[in-house]
Design a protein that fits this description.
The chain is an alpha/beta fold. Helix content is about 40%, strand content about 15%. It has helices at about 10-20, 85-95, 110-125, 155-165, 170-185, 230-245, 265-275, 310-315, 355-370, 370-380, 385-400, 410-425, 425-445, 450-465, 475-485, 490-505, 525-545, and strands spanning about 30, 40, 50-60, 75-80, 105-110, 130-135, 185-190, 210-215, 225, 250-260, 285-290, 300-305, 330. It has a 7-stranded mixed sheet with strand order 9-8-7-12-10-11-13, sandwiched between helices. A 6-stranded mixed sheet has the order 1-2-4-3-5-6, sandwiched between helices. Helix 9 (about 355-370) packs antiparallel against helix 11 (about 385-400), helix 12 (about 410-425) packs antiparallel against helix 13 (about 425-445) and helix 15 (about 475-485) runs parallel beside helix 17. The chain is elongated, with a radius of gyration of 33 Å.
């Protein structure tokens, strides 16, 4: 797997300096012990308040430095990637931030962190500083383990302790509230991949169709291999195990954490799924979804729940300085706003019959449907091979609605076809053709002939689409065909369209449309131009002498 970095041994310090350079204010600083001592702290810290210090290995960004600021952490101590900071680094952070009010250390329950933060606390006490420690073990993946891991639920403790400290509470009450909160947090993670560490060889242990439940935030294996299924089924498994640890009468805050590389689209889908699960009835506040405590580029997420009381809810809702913290929000159903109705006079005209119009529309649509596979094959040489399916979908939609079209009113029929194609085809093709027919309808409504109206539609389509003759698009066939139709009729239009489509085969490089973005030279006709030529040929047959 690939990573952006300079040297393995400077990744963390360069990242921390980048974070500080872009933090946007002078409220944050670092101690001068680089590179051995990596401590980010509040430059504006008032030592008459309880310092709240946390940290751990790098690789969990924005944790922990991203949460240093007013209302949260006073300082964060960083180790190397997935490695606990040294005793000396933790002690340096305590000395830099601790005054008469004392210091609370928030530690995730990993052996290295417990030992290094613990020894630093003992040394600080020997120097006469008041230091308390709270250890967070919120991971329920192994329900019978005596020392569960500390994972993303630790952030709830950061927020509560930071708020109480900012409010002026003393060390004993801040520590007591933090310990009580830590006991009321449960977390569980799931992932479809392990993470990779910059500068180290990576071997993916996951199969193509499986994931792991209950894996840690340092890439350690999960407690259970699970099959890849719909997210609703995966969330149901997590929800059942988390719900078993909740008070059935309690109200909870839910933290939805991206473990690294889940796209925002999927994280929002995950949030929707969780809030549609039985777990939702206990959730009063949500934090996220978002990157909060990651595991480098792990393709997974975790759910953490904290039982609420009035003090905890107030603490979670209180504003903070760090932008990495996502505000706690109440759960609300989506607000639905009624769609605006068409203006008077723009309503759909009632259905009416016209045999000639029906034959013409049917012939054009049937031709496009018959061309689905040939057009897809043409498009596959320059695109993703879906032009035939796209236009066939539009043609089928028009045919399905032909009995509802106001065929006796040509302008209204063009407008209806434009609406249908815009809704059914999708992509740029559907929009372009909807513009074409909609603009043609408006012009025909002012008394123009059909050929003149279609030329007006072409003018608007090329204005918005940007293509012109010579760019290797459908315009190469459509423009000469419509001009010939206006001047000489359907047979001349079919001939001009055929010549225009053939000319695109000699245009080795497209200048507009999706195929303009490929670097290879093309040697076939443009599929859009080819479709136009075939439609005009089918229409000309209707007008040919018997």
């Amino acid at each position: 797997m690939k990573h952006f970095f300079n040297r393995k041994d400077t990744i963390v310090t360069e990242a921390l300096d980048g974070f500080l350079a872009t933090a946007g204010s002078g409220a944050l600083a670092r101690l001068d012990g680089y590179p051995e001592i990596k401590v980010v702290l509040r430059a504006d810290w008032d030592k008459t308040k309880v310092a709240v210090v946390s940290g751990g290995g790098a690789g969990h960004e924005p944790s922990h430095t991203g949460f240093v600021g007013a209302g949260m952490l006073t300082a964060a101590v960083s180790g190397e990637i997935f490695a606990s900071p040294s005793v000396e680094a933790v002690l340096a952070a305590i000395r830099a931030t601790t005054g008469p009010a004392g210091c609370l250390l928030v530690v995730k329950n990993y052996t290295g962190d417990r030992l290094n933060f613990g020894l630093a606390a003992e040394k600080a006490r020997a120097e006469g500083l008041s230091v308390e420690i709270v250890i967070v073990g919120d991971d329920i993946a192994l329900p019978d383990i005596a020392q569960p891991r500390g994972v993303a639920g630790t952030l709830f403790v950061h927020k509560i302790a930071g708020h109480l400290s900012e409010s002026g509470r003393d060390l004993a009450s801040v520590a007591a509230a933090a310990r009580a909160a830590a006991k009321d947090i449960v977390s569980l993670g799931i992932s479809l991949s392990s993470c990779s560490i910059p500068g180290q060889a990576h071997e993916e242990r996951f199969g193509a169709n499986d994931g792991e439940l209950g894996l840690g935030i340092h890439g350690e294996p999960g407690v259970e291999r699970i099959a890849l299924e719909a997210v609703s089924k995966l969330v149901a498994i997590m929800a059942e195990r988390l719900a078993a640890r909740l008070d059935p009468h309690g109200r909870y805050a839910l933290l939805i954490n991206n473990l690294g590389s889940v796209p925002p689209l999927e994280m929002s889908l995950i949030a929707n799924t969780v809030l549609a699960s039985p777990l939702a009835k206990a959730v009063a506040l949500t934090v996220g979804p978002g990157h909060l405590m990651t595991a480098l580029n792990m393709n997974g997420f975790s759910l953490s729940l904290l039982r609420l009381d009035a003090e905890r809810e107030a603490a979670l809702k209180a504003p903070v300085g760090p932008h990495a913290w996502l505000p706690a929000k109440p759960v609300r159903a989506p607000v639905v706003v009624a769609m605006a109705r068409p203006a008077i006079g723009a309503t759909t005209k009632p259905a009416s019959r016209d045999a000639a119009a029906e034959r013409l529309i049917t012939a054009a649509c049937q031709k496009l449907i018959s061309l689905e596979e040939p057009l897809n094959a043409l498009d596959a040489k320059a695109g993703d091979g879906d032009t035939g399916s796209t236009v066939a979908t539009g043609a089928r939609s028009v045919l399905e609605r032909i009995d509802a079209l106001p065929l006796a009113d040509r302008a209204a029929t063009l407008a209806a076809i434009g609406d249908t194609l815009g809704a059914s085809m999708g992509g740029s093709s559907g929009v372009l053709l909807s513009i074409f027919f909609t603009a043609a309808a408006q012009t025909m409504g002012f008394g123009a002939t059909l050929p003149k109206a279609l030329l007006a539609g072409l003018d608007r389509m090329t204005f918005y689409g940007g293509a012109k003759v010579g760019d290797r698009t459908m315009v190469d066939a459509l423009e000469p065909a419509l001009k010939a139709l206006d001047a000489s009729g359907p047979e001349a239009a079919a001939k001009a369209a055929r010549q225009g489509a053939a000319a695109t085969a000699a245009m080795r490089k497209a200048k507009a449309g999706r195929s303009a973005y490929i670097g290879s030279q093309l040697d076939t006709a443009d599929p859009g131009a080819f479709a136009v030529a075939e439609v005009f040929a089918a229409v000309a047959t209707l007008f040919a002498p018997a």
